[in-house]
Task: structure prediction
Amino acid sequence: MSETPASEPISSPSSTPPTRALHEQTVARLNSQAALFELGFATHPHSYAKTHSAAEVVTAHPTLEPGTHWQEQQYAVAGRIMLMRQMGKAAFANLQDESGDVQLFFSKNTLVTPEHFEAVKQLDLGDVIGVRGHAFVTKTGQLTLEVSEFTPLVKSLHPLPDKHHGLKDIETRSRMRYLDLMVSDDSRRTFVIRSRVVRYIRNFLDTLGFMEVEGPTLQAIAGGTEAKPFVTHHNALSHDFYLRIALELHLKRLLVGGFEKVFEIGRVYRNEGIDLTHNPEFTMLELYWAYVDYEAIMDLVEKLFSGLALEIFGSTTFEIDGKAVDWSAPFARVDYLGELNAKVPDLDFDPLELDQLRAFCDARYPQWKKVPDYKLLDKLFGEYVEPHCINPTFVMHHPTVISPLAKEHPSRAGITERFELFAMGFELCNAFSELNDAVDQRQRFEAQAARRDAGDDEAHPIDEDFLLALEYGMPPAGGLGIGIDRLIMLLADKRSIRDVLLFPLLRPH
RNA sequence: GGAGCGUUAGCUCAAUUGGCAGAGCAGUUGACUCUUAAUCAGCGGGUUGUUGGUUCGAUUCCAACACGCUCCA
Result:
Protein backbone atom coordinates (compact mmCIF):
# COMPACT_ATOMS: atom_id res chain seq x y z
CA MET A 1 0.00 0.00 0.00
CA SER A 2 1.42 3.30 -1.02
CA GLU A 3 0.57 6.51 0.79
CA THR A 4 0.56 9.62 -1.30
CA PRO A 5 1.92 12.61 0.55
CA ALA A 6 -1.42 14.40 0.69
CA SER A 7 -3.54 11.43 1.80
CA GLU A 8 -3.98 12.79 5.35
CA PRO A 9 -6.44 15.60 5.90
CA ILE A 10 -4.19 18.59 5.74
CA SER A 11 -4.24 21.22 8.39
CA SER A 12 -2.60 24.43 7.33
CA PRO A 13 0.50 25.46 9.27
CA SER A 14 -0.36 28.00 11.88
CA SER A 15 -0.30 31.46 10.35
CA THR A 16 -0.94 33.32 13.60
CA PRO A 17 1.98 35.66 14.16
CA PRO A 18 3.72 34.75 17.38
CA THR A 19 3.53 37.24 20.20
CA ARG A 20 7.09 36.68 21.39
CA ALA A 21 10.28 37.05 19.41
CA LEU A 22 11.21 33.72 17.89
CA HIS A 23 14.71 32.42 17.83
CA GLU A 24 16.34 32.32 14.43
CA GLN A 25 16.47 28.52 14.52
CA THR A 26 12.77 28.27 15.39
CA VAL A 27 11.91 30.50 12.45
CA ALA A 28 13.97 28.25 10.20
CA ARG A 29 12.06 25.21 11.41
CA LEU A 30 8.67 26.84 10.99
CA ASN A 31 9.77 27.68 7.48
CA SER A 32 10.74 24.11 6.73
CA GLN A 33 7.39 22.98 8.15
CA ALA A 34 5.67 25.34 5.74
CA ALA A 35 7.85 24.04 2.90
CA LEU A 36 6.82 20.47 3.72
CA PHE A 37 3.19 21.58 3.66
CA GLU A 38 3.73 23.13 0.23
CA LEU A 39 5.10 19.78 -0.92
CA GLY A 40 1.84 18.15 0.16
CA PHE A 41 2.74 16.78 3.59
CA ALA A 42 0.32 17.27 6.48
CA THR A 43 1.92 19.09 9.40
CA HIS A 44 0.43 17.05 12.22
CA PRO A 45 -0.91 13.68 11.07
CA HIS A 46 -3.12 11.89 13.58
CA SER A 47 -1.36 8.54 13.63
CA TYR A 48 1.23 6.40 11.97
CA ALA A 49 0.85 2.68 11.43
CA LYS A 50 4.28 1.49 12.49
CA THR A 51 4.91 -2.21 12.06
CA HIS A 52 8.27 -2.60 13.78
CA SER A 53 10.61 -0.94 16.23
CA ALA A 54 14.04 0.26 15.19
CA ALA A 55 15.68 -2.51 17.18
CA GLU A 56 13.47 -5.16 15.55
CA VAL A 57 14.60 -4.05 12.09
CA VAL A 58 18.25 -4.22 13.07
CA THR A 59 18.08 -7.56 14.86
CA ALA A 60 15.97 -9.22 12.18
CA HIS A 61 18.93 -9.27 9.78
CA PRO A 62 22.06 -10.67 11.34
CA THR A 63 23.81 -11.10 7.95
CA LEU A 64 26.18 -8.23 7.37
CA GLU A 65 27.30 -8.95 3.80
CA PRO A 66 27.57 -5.53 2.12
CA GLY A 67 25.10 -5.05 -0.68
CA THR A 68 22.52 -7.53 0.62
CA HIS A 69 18.93 -6.31 0.19
CA TRP A 70 15.79 -7.81 1.70
CA GLN A 71 13.26 -6.33 -0.75
CA GLU A 72 10.42 -8.67 0.22
CA GLN A 73 10.17 -7.52 3.83
CA GLN A 74 8.67 -4.05 4.22
CA TYR A 75 9.00 -2.13 7.48
CA ALA A 76 7.18 0.90 8.81
CA VAL A 77 9.15 2.53 11.62
CA ALA A 78 8.61 5.81 13.42
CA GLY A 79 10.86 7.91 15.60
CA ARG A 80 12.98 10.99 15.95
CA ILE A 81 15.78 12.02 13.59
CA MET A 82 18.89 12.31 15.74
CA LEU A 83 21.61 12.59 13.10
CA MET A 84 21.51 13.45 9.43
CA ARG A 85 24.12 13.31 6.70
CA GLN A 86 22.91 14.83 3.47
CA MET A 87 24.91 14.70 0.25
CA GLY A 88 23.33 15.91 -2.93
CA LYS A 89 21.04 13.19 -4.15
CA ALA A 90 21.26 10.89 -1.16
CA ALA A 91 21.14 11.14 2.61
CA PHE A 92 21.66 9.05 5.69
CA ALA A 93 19.88 9.66 8.94
CA ASN A 94 19.68 7.97 12.33
CA LEU A 95 16.15 7.36 13.51
CA GLN A 96 15.68 6.81 17.22
CA ASP A 97 12.66 5.25 18.89
CA GLU A 98 12.16 3.74 22.33
CA SER A 99 13.91 0.54 21.31
CA GLY A 100 17.06 2.11 19.89
CA ASP A 101 18.39 3.37 16.59
CA VAL A 102 18.21 2.40 12.96
CA GLN A 103 20.08 4.08 10.12
CA LEU A 104 17.94 5.37 7.25
CA PHE A 105 18.97 5.77 3.65
CA PHE A 106 17.17 8.21 1.36
CA SER A 107 18.02 8.65 -2.31
CA LYS A 108 16.50 10.31 -5.32
CA ASN A 109 16.25 6.94 -7.07
CA THR A 110 14.55 5.00 -4.33
CA LEU A 111 11.97 7.45 -3.00
CA VAL A 112 8.50 7.12 -4.49
CA THR A 113 8.05 10.71 -5.67
CA PRO A 114 10.19 13.78 -6.42
CA GLU A 115 8.24 15.54 -3.65
CA HIS A 116 9.61 13.04 -1.16
CA PHE A 117 13.13 13.76 -2.27
CA GLU A 118 12.58 17.51 -1.97
CA ALA A 119 11.06 16.94 1.45
CA VAL A 120 14.20 15.19 2.72
CA LYS A 121 15.94 18.55 2.48
CA GLN A 122 13.32 20.04 4.78
CA LEU A 123 13.85 17.50 7.54
CA ASP A 124 15.58 18.82 10.65
CA LEU A 125 17.35 17.11 13.50
CA GLY A 126 14.72 16.38 16.12
CA ASP A 127 11.82 15.91 13.73
CA VAL A 128 9.61 12.90 14.31
CA ILE A 129 8.87 10.98 11.13
CA GLY A 130 7.45 7.66 10.01
CA VAL A 131 9.31 5.77 7.29
CA ARG A 132 8.55 2.78 5.08
CA GLY A 133 11.12 0.72 3.27
CA HIS A 134 13.25 -2.39 3.31
CA ALA A 135 16.50 -3.38 4.97
CA PHE A 136 19.85 -3.59 3.25
CA VAL A 137 23.51 -3.62 4.19
CA THR A 138 25.71 -0.66 3.25
CA LYS A 139 29.19 -0.86 1.74
CA THR A 140 30.59 -0.47 5.20
CA GLY A 141 28.48 -3.34 6.53
CA GLN A 142 25.81 -1.44 8.42
CA LEU A 143 22.23 -2.64 8.47
CA THR A 144 20.17 0.23 7.07
CA LEU A 145 16.57 0.92 6.15
CA GLU A 146 16.23 2.08 2.56
CA VAL A 147 13.33 4.51 2.69
CA SER A 148 10.83 4.42 -0.17
CA GLU A 149 8.40 6.86 1.40
CA PHE A 150 8.08 8.75 4.62
CA THR A 151 5.66 10.90 6.58
CA PRO A 152 6.75 13.89 8.65
CA LEU A 153 4.77 13.47 11.88
CA VAL A 154 5.83 16.52 13.84
CA LYS A 155 8.48 19.18 13.46
CA SER A 156 10.79 19.99 16.34
CA LEU A 157 10.74 23.76 16.62
CA HIS A 158 13.95 23.85 18.63
CA PRO A 159 17.42 22.54 17.89
CA LEU A 160 18.57 19.46 19.79
CA PRO A 161 21.43 19.66 22.29
CA ASP A 162 24.91 19.14 20.86
CA LYS A 163 24.89 15.81 19.06
CA HIS A 164 28.25 14.81 20.43
CA HIS A 165 28.39 16.33 23.91
CA GLY A 166 24.69 16.07 24.67
CA LEU A 167 23.20 17.89 27.63
CA LYS A 168 25.60 18.23 30.56
CA ASP A 169 24.15 20.75 32.95
CA ILE A 170 22.38 18.77 35.67
CA GLU A 171 19.78 21.46 36.20
CA THR A 172 18.79 21.56 32.54
CA ARG A 173 18.78 17.77 32.42
CA SER A 174 16.31 17.69 35.31
CA ARG A 175 14.24 20.64 34.22
CA MET A 176 13.98 19.50 30.60
CA ARG A 177 13.98 15.78 31.25
CA TYR A 178 12.51 15.10 27.82
CA LEU A 179 15.68 16.50 26.23
CA ASP A 180 17.87 14.48 28.56
CA LEU A 181 15.96 11.32 27.64
CA MET A 182 16.20 12.14 23.94
CA VAL A 183 19.95 12.49 23.92
CA SER A 184 21.18 10.29 26.74
CA ASP A 185 21.14 6.50 26.45
CA ASP A 186 22.36 6.37 30.01
CA SER A 187 19.46 8.40 31.32
CA ARG A 188 16.92 6.25 29.46
CA ARG A 189 18.62 3.15 30.83
CA THR A 190 18.38 4.47 34.38
CA PHE A 191 14.63 4.97 34.21
CA VAL A 192 14.12 1.62 32.53
CA ILE A 193 15.99 0.05 35.43
CA ARG A 194 13.80 1.99 37.84
CA SER A 195 10.67 0.62 36.23
CA ARG A 196 12.02 -2.95 36.20
CA VAL A 197 13.04 -2.78 39.84
CA VAL A 198 9.62 -1.63 40.98
CA ARG A 199 7.91 -4.21 38.81
CA TYR A 200 10.16 -6.93 40.19
CA ILE A 201 9.37 -5.95 43.75
CA ARG A 202 5.62 -5.95 43.06
CA ASN A 203 5.78 -9.37 41.44
CA PHE A 204 7.97 -10.72 44.23
CA LEU A 205 5.58 -9.57 46.93
CA ASP A 206 2.56 -10.67 44.96
CA THR A 207 4.04 -14.15 44.73
CA LEU A 208 4.44 -14.20 48.51
CA GLY A 209 0.78 -13.33 48.92
CA PHE A 210 1.12 -9.67 49.86
CA MET A 211 -1.68 -7.30 49.03
CA GLU A 212 -0.88 -3.88 47.61
CA VAL A 213 -2.85 -1.05 49.19
CA GLU A 214 -3.02 2.72 49.08
CA GLY A 215 -3.06 4.87 52.17
CA PRO A 216 -4.00 8.52 52.34
CA THR A 217 -1.42 11.14 51.38
CA LEU A 218 -3.39 13.90 53.10
CA GLN A 219 -3.32 13.30 56.82
CA ALA A 220 -4.54 15.16 59.87
CA ILE A 221 -1.36 14.15 61.72
CA ALA A 222 1.78 13.19 59.84
CA GLY A 223 3.41 10.34 61.69
CA GLY A 224 5.38 7.16 61.32
CA THR A 225 8.76 8.84 61.52
CA GLU A 226 10.25 12.16 62.49
CA ALA A 227 10.37 14.78 59.74
CA LYS A 228 8.89 18.15 58.94
CA PRO A 229 5.73 17.72 56.90
CA PHE A 230 4.26 19.90 54.17
CA VAL A 231 1.05 21.63 55.21
CA THR A 232 -1.94 22.23 53.00
CA HIS A 233 -5.51 23.31 53.56
CA HIS A 234 -8.80 21.68 52.77
CA ASN A 235 -11.40 24.37 52.13
CA ALA A 236 -14.63 22.42 52.59
CA LEU A 237 -13.52 20.88 55.88
CA SER A 238 -11.84 24.13 56.82
CA HIS A 239 -8.88 22.23 58.22
CA ASP A 240 -5.15 22.00 57.65
CA PHE A 241 -3.81 18.68 56.48
CA TYR A 242 -0.28 17.33 56.19
CA LEU A 243 1.26 15.43 53.33
CA ARG A 244 2.35 12.07 54.63
CA ILE A 245 5.95 11.60 55.71
CA ALA A 246 5.69 7.81 55.97
CA LEU A 247 3.30 4.99 55.12
CA GLU A 248 3.53 3.15 58.39
CA LEU A 249 0.63 4.12 60.62
CA HIS A 250 -2.12 3.44 58.11
CA LEU A 251 -0.65 0.13 57.02
CA LYS A 252 -0.63 -0.92 60.67
CA ARG A 253 -4.31 0.00 60.96
CA LEU A 254 -4.87 -2.55 58.20
CA LEU A 255 -3.15 -5.24 60.28
CA VAL A 256 -5.56 -4.38 63.09
CA GLY A 257 -8.35 -4.76 60.54
CA GLY A 258 -7.24 -8.29 59.75
CA PHE A 259 -5.18 -8.08 56.59
CA GLU A 260 -2.04 -10.09 57.26
CA LYS A 261 0.36 -9.19 54.46
CA VAL A 262 0.14 -5.68 53.11
CA PHE A 263 2.49 -3.32 51.32
CA GLU A 264 2.44 0.07 49.70
CA ILE A 265 4.81 1.67 47.23
CA GLY A 266 4.17 5.37 47.31
CA ARG A 267 5.36 8.91 47.50
CA VAL A 268 6.14 10.47 50.83
CA TYR A 269 6.90 14.12 51.37
CA ARG A 270 9.36 15.69 53.77
CA ASN A 271 9.79 19.42 54.02
CA GLU A 272 13.54 19.47 54.17
CA GLY A 273 16.59 20.47 52.18
CA ILE A 274 17.67 19.15 48.83
CA ASP A 275 21.03 17.49 48.36
CA LEU A 276 22.69 14.57 46.63
CA THR A 277 20.52 12.01 48.42
CA HIS A 278 17.43 14.00 49.41
CA ASN A 279 14.46 15.19 47.40
CA PRO A 280 11.39 16.58 49.19
CA GLU A 281 9.22 13.90 47.60
CA PHE A 282 10.51 10.40 47.19
CA THR A 283 9.26 6.84 46.98
CA MET A 284 9.06 4.38 49.83
CA LEU A 285 8.12 0.78 50.00
CA GLU A 286 6.66 -0.27 53.32
CA LEU A 287 5.53 -3.77 54.11
CA TYR A 288 3.85 -5.34 57.16
CA TRP A 289 3.51 -9.03 57.80
CA ALA A 290 1.38 -10.27 60.69
CA TYR A 291 2.42 -13.10 63.02
CA VAL A 292 6.13 -12.98 62.09
CA ASP A 293 9.06 -11.12 63.61
CA TYR A 294 12.10 -9.41 62.13
CA GLU A 295 13.78 -12.74 61.37
CA ALA A 296 11.19 -13.53 58.71
CA ILE A 297 11.56 -10.04 57.28
CA MET A 298 15.31 -10.52 57.08
CA ASP A 299 14.85 -13.70 55.07
CA LEU A 300 12.43 -11.89 52.79
CA VAL A 301 14.87 -9.00 52.24
CA GLU A 302 17.70 -11.40 51.48
CA LYS A 303 15.64 -13.18 48.82
CA LEU A 304 14.32 -9.90 47.42
CA PHE A 305 17.69 -8.26 46.99
CA SER A 306 19.62 -11.21 45.63
CA GLY A 307 16.71 -11.78 43.24
CA LEU A 308 16.80 -8.15 42.20
CA ALA A 309 20.52 -8.34 41.46
CA LEU A 310 19.88 -11.36 39.28
CA GLU A 311 17.01 -9.59 37.55
CA ILE A 312 18.92 -6.39 36.82
CA PHE A 313 22.46 -7.66 36.28
CA GLY A 314 21.88 -11.29 35.39
CA SER A 315 24.15 -12.28 38.28
CA THR A 316 24.36 -11.93 42.04
CA THR A 317 27.85 -10.50 41.71
CA PHE A 318 28.43 -7.29 39.80
CA GLU A 319 30.51 -4.18 39.85
CA ILE A 320 29.33 -0.78 41.04
CA ASP A 321 31.54 2.26 41.00
CA GLY A 322 34.52 0.03 40.34
CA LYS A 323 33.80 -2.15 43.37
CA ALA A 324 32.75 -5.77 43.12
CA VAL A 325 29.65 -6.48 45.17
CA ASP A 326 28.38 -9.93 46.01
CA TRP A 327 24.61 -10.14 46.41
CA SER A 328 24.37 -13.86 46.91
CA ALA A 329 22.59 -14.99 50.06
CA PRO A 330 23.23 -15.23 52.94
CA PHE A 331 24.24 -11.65 53.66
CA ALA A 332 26.65 -10.86 56.46
CA ARG A 333 24.96 -10.21 59.81
CA VAL A 334 26.52 -8.05 62.48
CA ASP A 335 25.38 -6.70 65.82
CA TYR A 336 24.90 -2.93 66.00
CA LEU A 337 26.74 -2.29 69.26
CA GLY A 338 29.25 -5.06 68.60
CA GLU A 339 30.16 -3.54 65.25
CA LEU A 340 30.33 -0.05 66.72
CA ASN A 341 32.61 -1.20 69.52
CA ALA A 342 34.80 -2.99 67.00
CA LYS A 343 35.09 -0.10 64.56
CA VAL A 344 35.12 3.04 66.71
CA PRO A 345 38.55 3.54 68.33
CA ASP A 346 38.47 3.25 72.13
CA LEU A 347 34.74 2.53 72.25
CA ASP A 348 33.59 -0.38 74.40
CA PHE A 349 29.99 0.00 75.58
CA ASP A 350 27.54 -2.80 76.15
CA PRO A 351 25.06 -2.21 77.55
CA LEU A 352 24.84 1.33 76.35
CA GLU A 353 24.55 4.25 78.74
CA LEU A 354 23.76 7.57 77.12
CA ASP A 355 25.67 9.48 79.78
CA GLN A 356 28.82 7.52 79.04
CA LEU A 357 28.35 8.00 75.34
CA ARG A 358 27.93 11.75 75.79
CA ALA A 359 31.15 11.97 77.75
CA PHE A 360 32.97 9.78 75.24
CA CYS A 361 31.89 11.93 72.29
CA ASP A 362 32.41 15.26 74.03
CA ALA A 363 36.00 14.27 74.69
CA ARG A 364 36.75 13.16 71.15
CA TYR A 365 34.32 14.92 68.83
CA PRO A 366 33.80 18.47 70.13
CA GLN A 367 32.11 19.40 66.84
CA TRP A 368 29.13 17.24 67.94
CA LYS A 369 28.42 19.25 71.08
CA LYS A 370 25.05 20.29 69.71
CA VAL A 371 24.04 16.81 68.53
CA PRO A 372 21.32 15.40 70.82
CA ASP A 373 22.43 12.43 72.94
CA TYR A 374 20.20 9.95 71.18
CA LYS A 375 21.64 10.91 67.77
CA LEU A 376 25.28 10.41 68.77
CA LEU A 377 25.08 6.72 68.00
CA ASP A 378 23.93 7.46 64.47
CA LYS A 379 26.81 9.90 64.07
CA LEU A 380 29.37 7.33 65.16
CA PHE A 381 27.74 4.66 63.05
CA GLY A 382 27.65 6.88 59.97
CA GLU A 383 31.28 7.76 60.48
CA TYR A 384 32.87 4.39 61.25
CA VAL A 385 30.59 1.57 60.12
CA GLU A 386 28.24 2.58 57.33
CA PRO A 387 30.85 3.60 54.74
CA HIS A 388 32.61 0.25 55.13
CA CYS A 389 29.61 -1.96 54.44
CA ILE A 390 30.33 -2.67 50.78
CA ASN A 391 28.84 -6.13 50.40
CA PRO A 392 25.27 -6.27 51.66
CA THR A 393 25.36 -6.44 55.43
CA PHE A 394 22.55 -6.75 57.93
CA VAL A 395 23.20 -4.59 60.96
CA MET A 396 20.99 -5.91 63.76
CA HIS A 397 19.77 -5.13 67.25
CA HIS A 398 19.78 -1.35 67.46
CA PRO A 399 19.48 0.29 70.88
CA THR A 400 15.95 1.23 71.87
CA VAL A 401 16.86 4.90 72.18
CA ILE A 402 17.24 5.19 68.41
CA SER A 403 14.41 2.81 67.52
CA PRO A 404 11.17 4.31 68.85
CA LEU A 405 8.82 2.03 66.90
CA ALA A 406 10.62 -1.28 67.35
CA LYS A 407 9.88 -4.03 69.81
CA GLU A 408 12.46 -4.72 72.47
CA HIS A 409 14.59 -7.82 72.31
CA PRO A 410 13.14 -10.42 74.73
CA SER A 411 16.46 -11.16 76.41
CA ARG A 412 18.63 -8.05 75.90
CA ALA A 413 17.69 -4.90 77.80
CA GLY A 414 17.76 -1.66 75.85
CA ILE A 415 18.10 -3.51 72.53
CA THR A 416 15.43 -3.89 69.84
CA GLU A 417 14.54 -6.52 67.31
CA ARG A 418 15.56 -4.36 64.38
CA PHE A 419 17.87 -4.53 61.38
CA GLU A 420 19.08 -2.33 58.61
CA LEU A 421 20.63 -3.49 55.36
CA PHE A 422 23.69 -1.64 54.13
CA ALA A 423 25.54 -2.03 50.84
CA MET A 424 28.04 0.19 49.05
CA GLY A 425 28.05 2.34 52.18
CA PHE A 426 24.35 3.00 51.68
CA GLU A 427 21.39 2.29 53.91
CA LEU A 428 18.94 0.27 51.83
CA CYS A 429 16.26 -0.72 54.26
CA ASN A 430 15.09 -0.58 57.82
CA ALA A 431 12.98 -3.23 59.50
CA PHE A 432 11.85 -4.48 62.87
CA SER A 433 9.48 -6.45 64.94
CA GLU A 434 6.73 -3.87 65.27
CA LEU A 435 5.74 -2.44 68.57
CA ASN A 436 2.14 -3.55 69.28
CA ASP A 437 1.87 -2.69 72.96
CA ALA A 438 -0.64 0.17 72.88
CA VAL A 439 0.34 1.41 76.34
CA ASP A 440 4.03 1.45 75.50
CA GLN A 441 3.27 3.13 72.18
CA ARG A 442 1.31 5.85 73.96
CA GLN A 443 4.22 6.52 76.28
CA ARG A 444 6.62 6.82 73.36
CA PHE A 445 4.25 9.22 71.57
CA GLU A 446 3.96 11.27 74.74
CA ALA A 447 7.74 11.53 74.96
CA GLN A 448 7.76 12.72 71.36
CA ALA A 449 5.00 15.23 72.01
CA ALA A 450 7.03 16.56 74.92
CA ARG A 451 9.97 17.12 72.61
CA ARG A 452 7.63 18.89 70.21
CA ASP A 453 6.48 21.19 72.99
CA ALA A 454 10.13 21.82 73.73
CA GLY A 455 10.60 23.10 70.20
CA ASP A 456 11.53 20.05 68.10
CA ASP A 457 9.33 20.55 65.03
CA GLU A 458 10.25 17.15 63.63
CA ALA A 459 8.41 15.51 66.52
CA HIS A 460 4.66 15.10 66.15
CA PRO A 461 1.59 15.40 68.32
CA ILE A 462 -0.05 12.25 69.62
CA ASP A 463 -2.00 10.38 66.95
CA GLU A 464 -4.98 9.32 69.09
CA ASP A 465 -6.71 7.81 66.10
CA PHE A 466 -3.81 5.43 65.54
CA LEU A 467 -3.49 4.64 69.24
CA LEU A 468 -7.17 3.74 69.37
CA ALA A 469 -6.65 1.30 66.51
CA LEU A 470 -3.65 -0.18 68.29
CA GLU A 471 -5.72 -0.58 71.47
CA TYR A 472 -8.02 -2.95 69.58
CA GLY A 473 -4.98 -5.19 69.19
CA MET A 474 -2.52 -5.36 66.32
CA PRO A 475 -1.15 -8.86 65.90
CA PRO A 476 2.58 -9.28 66.33
CA ALA A 477 4.15 -8.32 63.02
CA GLY A 478 7.36 -7.66 61.17
CA GLY A 479 7.66 -4.47 59.16
CA LEU A 480 10.02 -3.23 56.47
CA GLY A 481 10.78 0.06 54.80
CA ILE A 482 12.86 0.51 51.66
CA GLY A 483 13.85 3.82 50.08
CA ILE A 484 13.22 3.05 46.44
CA ASP A 485 15.17 6.01 45.08
CA ARG A 486 18.35 5.10 46.92
CA LEU A 487 17.99 1.52 45.82
CA ILE A 488 17.79 2.72 42.22
CA MET A 489 20.82 4.95 42.75
CA LEU A 490 22.74 1.91 43.81
CA LEU A 491 21.53 -0.40 41.06
CA ALA A 492 21.88 2.21 38.31
CA ASP A 493 25.21 3.47 39.68
CA LYS A 494 24.08 7.07 40.10
CA ARG A 495 25.58 9.45 42.61
CA SER A 496 22.68 11.90 42.76
CA ILE A 497 19.04 11.25 43.61
CA ARG A 498 18.18 13.75 40.88
CA ASP A 499 19.51 11.28 38.35
CA VAL A 500 16.97 8.64 39.37
CA LEU A 501 13.93 10.94 39.68
CA LEU A 502 12.28 11.81 36.38
CA PHE A 503 11.19 15.17 37.71
CA PRO A 504 13.06 16.21 40.86
CA LEU A 505 11.87 19.27 42.72
CA LEU A 506 13.40 22.46 41.29
CA ARG A 507 13.00 26.08 42.06
CA PRO A 508 10.32 27.40 39.71
CA HIS A 509 11.58 29.73 37.03
C1' G B 1 22.64 28.96 58.00
C1' G B 2 28.31 29.04 56.58
C1' A B 3 32.35 28.28 52.99
C1' G B 4 34.30 27.31 48.14
C1' C B 5 33.47 27.13 42.92
C1' G B 6 30.53 28.49 38.82
C1' U B 7 26.96 31.47 35.29
C1' U B 8 29.97 33.65 27.90
C1' A B 9 25.68 31.84 21.07
C1' G B 10 20.16 26.92 20.91
C1' C B 11 24.16 22.92 22.89
C1' U B 12 29.45 21.83 24.50
C1' C B 13 33.32 24.89 25.72
C1' A B 14 37.53 28.75 24.90
C1' A B 15 39.49 33.80 25.66
C1' U B 16 40.92 38.78 27.99
C1' U B 17 48.12 41.12 32.74
C1' G B 18 41.39 45.81 31.73
C1' G B 19 41.58 47.28 24.86
C1' C B 20 36.86 45.16 18.19
C1' A B 21 33.96 38.30 22.07
C1' G B 22 36.12 32.91 19.68
C1' A B 23 35.71 27.56 18.22
C1' G B 24 33.06 22.95 17.32
C1' C B 25 28.13 21.27 16.88
C1' A B 26 23.31 23.36 15.52
C1' G B 27 21.30 27.30 11.69
C1' U B 28 21.71 29.34 6.64
C1' U B 29 23.58 29.52 1.15
C1' G B 30 26.19 26.47 -2.24
C1' A B 31 28.84 21.61 -3.82
C1' C B 32 28.41 16.35 -3.20
C1' U B 33 24.42 9.20 -4.62
C1' C B 34 27.42 4.57 0.79
C1' U B 35 27.63 8.39 5.15
C1' U B 36 28.79 7.11 10.57
C1' A B 37 29.93 13.46 15.31
C1' A B 38 29.92 12.88 6.88
C1' U B 39 33.11 16.33 4.16
C1' C B 40 34.34 21.10 1.61
C1' A B 41 33.47 26.56 0.74
C1' G B 42 30.80 31.06 2.13
C1' C B 43 27.30 33.68 5.60
C1' G B 44 24.38 34.89 9.84
C1' G B 45 23.78 34.32 15.28
C1' G B 46 26.09 37.49 21.81
C1' U B 47 22.61 42.93 26.94
C1' U B 48 29.34 37.60 28.51
C1' G B 49 23.22 35.99 35.02
C1' U B 50 21.28 41.12 37.22
C1' U B 51 22.29 45.89 39.43
C1' G B 52 25.76 49.23 41.03
C1' G B 53 31.09 50.88 41.62
C1' U B 54 36.33 51.80 39.95
C1' U B 55 38.25 53.21 34.99
C1' C B 56 39.46 56.93 29.04
C1' G B 57 37.58 51.95 28.43
C1' A B 58 34.72 46.29 32.33
C1' U B 59 32.90 40.31 29.61
C1' U B 60 37.65 40.61 32.68
C1' C B 61 38.74 44.21 38.76
C1' C B 62 35.37 45.38 43.26
C1' A B 63 30.45 45.10 45.85
C1' A B 64 25.55 43.52 46.37
C1' C B 65 21.91 40.37 44.54
C1' A B 66 19.88 36.09 41.72
C1' C B 67 20.47 31.21 40.19
C1' G B 68 23.31 26.63 40.13
C1' C B 69 26.93 22.98 41.89
C1' U B 70 29.98 20.96 45.86
C1' C B 71 31.34 20.63 50.89
C1' C B 72 30.16 21.72 56.02
C1' A B 73 26.28 22.65 59.98
Q: What stands out?
A: Chain A has 14 helices and 18 strands. Residues 185-207 of chain A form the longest helix (23 residues). The radius of gyration of chain A is 30 Å.
